[in-house]
Amino acid sequence: MKARELNNLIKDAEGPTVEFKRTTGDLKDGLETVCGMLNAKGGKVFFGVNRKGVIEGQQVSEQTMHEITESFKRFEPPPVIEIERVEVRAGHEVVVLSAKPNAEAVPFTFDGRPYERVGNTTRKMSQARYEALLLQRSHETRRWENAPAVRVRLKDLDREEILRTRDEAIRQRRISAGTSMDVGDILDRLGLRIDGKITQAAQVLYGTRFLPDYPQCLIKMGRFRGTKITGDILDNKQEHLNAFASLREGMAFLDRTLPLSARFPKGKIFREDRLPVPVYLFSSLCTTGFGGVIA
User: Fold this and answer.
1) Could you tell me whether strands 261-263 and 109-110 are parallel, antiparallel, or unpaired per DSSP bridges?
2) Among 206, 169, 208, 217, which residue's Cα sits nearest to residue 184?
3) Considering the entire predicted model, what is its pTM?
4) HSE (CB half, 13 Å, CA atoms) of 172?
5) Strand order in 121-124's β-sheet?
6) How many CB atoms are closer than 10 A to CB 27?
7) Where in the chain are all domains bearing CATH 3.30.950.30?
């Protein structure tokens, strides 16, 4: 970084991504600010610039740099912080710490405490917010659907269903028409194969065998006499299927078993057919994992 670039960076006042410290004597406060920036969108802390944005610089020894780099060990989890030294006059430099954002690692702590940046100030993060961010991080990195599928190989997935997903994505212009028809490549693009391992999500969406490891991939459908599900069962069916097949099977069951009424509107020659449940509600009934009809 050149002195002119430094001037451009500090021309604006302190804010969520910029903090000025006169010397590294304020290193602890500066690192707390770095922590707050890491927990947001990143930012820069300038040592050798006073609060008014005037570049003063300071003498920077190797011991000073050692103390700064050693202090990074006090962050958890380990952050990405870049250090730059900018000479502003003979024997005087500005030290710039750049906090690189990493949303997947939030929340960060410094000396065991989390900080957040609010405007141009840094403050301790509330316990409630810290716990919420910690739970979010744990959920995102350890979600069940992202774990490797149990004893599932590529050949165990429904290739035609995967290709239908590809075709639909192309139709909606979510992916290019030149996207490979290799099912492994498609799963990679969808985030359903991670580091070469098929995820639980891929198994639920495209699996072809479910027992004994995935008994939850089940749809139950029933038709009952009367107005209570405790009455006589006129028709019932259950299937272990993937999510797409379950939706189609459930909609087909409702379409087959629901009574169809009709009427001729006044002044019209065409009949209007009516189902007791609107068609657009079929999918919501099916996605509950149970499709039921009361006769």
Assistant:
1) unpaired
2) 206
3) 0.55
4) 6
5) 75-76, 109-110, 113-118, 121-124
6) 18
7) 3-142
The number of angstroms, rounded, from the C-alpha of 171 to the middle of its chain's C-alpha atoms is 25
List, in sequence order, every residue forming a beta bridge with 220; answer none if it has no partner.
238, 290
- 34 phi/psi in degrees, rounded to 5: -55, -40
Architecture of domain 3-142: 2-Layer Sandwich (3.30)
DSSP for the chain, please give it: --HHHHHHHTSSPPBTTEEEESSGGGHHHHHHHHHHHHTTT-EEEEETB-TTS-B--B---HHHHHHHHHHGGGEESPP-EEEEEEEEETTEEEEEEEEPP-GGGPPPEETTEEEEEETTEEEEPPHHHHHHHHHHHHHHHH-GGGSBPTT--GGGB-HHHHHHHHHHHHHTTSS-TT----HHHHHHHTT-EETTEEBHHHHHHHBS--TTT-TT-EEEEEEESSSSTTS-EEEEEEEE--HHHHHHHHHHHHHHHS--EEE--TT-SS-EEE-SS-GGGHHHHHTTTEEEEE-
Compare 137 and 245 and report the one with higher pLDDT.
Answer: 245
The confidence score (pLDDT) of residue 284 equals: 55
> Stretch 199-223: mean pLDDT, rounded?
93
Q: If you average pLDDT over residues 171-194, what whole number do you get?
A: 88
* pLDDT surpasses 70 at 157: yes
| Rounded mean pLDDT, 244-263 | 86
**DSSP per-residue codes, 199-252:** BHHHHHHHBS--TTT-TT-EEEEEEESSSSTTS-EEEEEEEE--HHHHHHHHHH
Confidence band of 215 (pLDDT split at 50, 70, 90): very high
